[in-house]
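A quick aside before the break. I want you to see a complete sequence-to-structure record at least once, exactly as it would be stored in a machine-readable document. Don't worry about memorizing anything.
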Amino acid sequence: MPPLTRALLWASASFAVAFAWIADVIPAAAGNALVVALPIAMLASTPRAACRKG
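That is the input. The structure line, written in tokens, reads:
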């Protein structure tokens, strides 16, 4: 998967969580945990070779 596509997928997931948290669709504790966990999951799932390209 190209890096731009991967970044857009993770960004859309982060925005969806943020908007759901603001709209009180998800509880504050769950929203806070997801805001912290999503970037960690993004970094953990990024292949190391993608980080070395430049």
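Two observations worth writing down. The longest helix spans residues 3-22. The radius of gyration is 13 Å. We'll return to this after the break.
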